[in-house]
Design brief:
Length: about 200
């Protein structure tokens, strides 16, 4: 097994275990057992658990934001793209293993003691906010709308995790649609809905 394969197996195991159980509840031995990578090799690749946590969050960030962009950018209408963010969240919240935002969870566990987790969390959240700002700008909407969309999405993530339901994504989408309708340019633009087929249904 080369280093790339071992690293992938370790990160696969770490992501499954950290996300399902929490970082502090998962020991290195559990990751070794789940990955099948010997402990010596594990420490060669990740000398400290914090490095493994940081790599887990970095890879998850790439996959999470990449999946969101792929889903949203299949649509051409700028406002439909904005609403598709919430459709994508609904699909994510509906996954059997969903237990909230990995970065919020990690920050809640380790934020006071891990600068690396703080950095990864802030980087991820800022990248998400910037992505929403780009969607809003493409729809000729002010940046304040992007900030509101960001808060709607973040609130939906937390609420969905607490109540174990995807419904917050639908409610956030409805609020986002009202926000777009009230924006200065919305009266002259078509605001897409899932029912009309302009956004990808969840």
């Amino acid at each position: 097994m080369d280093d790339d394969a071992a690293r992938t197996r370790l990160l696969d195991a770490a992501e499954d275990l950290f996300y399902a159980r929490g970082i502090q509840a998962v020991g290195i031995d559990a990751i070794r057992d789940a990955s099948g990578v010997p402990l010596k090799r594990l420490y060669q690749l990740f000398p400290a658990k914090e490095q493994l946590v940081e790599a887990y969050l970095e890879r998850r960030d790439r996959n999470w934001r990449g999946g969101l962009a792929e889903y949203v950018e299949r649509l051409s209408d700028p406002q439909a793209r904005i609403l598709a963010v919430f459709d994508w969240l609904h699909a994510w919240f509906s996954e059997p293993g969903f237990r909230g935002c990995a970065w919020i969870n990690s920050y809640g566990e380790l934020g006071p003691t891990s600068p690396a987790v703080v950095t990864q969390t802030r980087r991820h959240k800022e990248a998400f906010r910037v992505y929403l700002a780009g969607l809003a700008a493409a729809a000729a909407l002010p940046e304040s709308v992007a900030d509101s969309l960001y808060l709607l999405a973040e609130g939906a993530m937390v609420t969905a995790a607490i109540f174990i339901t995807a419904e917050p994504a639908s409610r956030a989408r409805a609020a986002a649609q009202q926000l777009l309708a009230a924006a200065p340019v919305a009266s002259s633009r078509y605001v897409g809905t899932a029912e009309s087929g302009s956004a990808i249904p969840h």
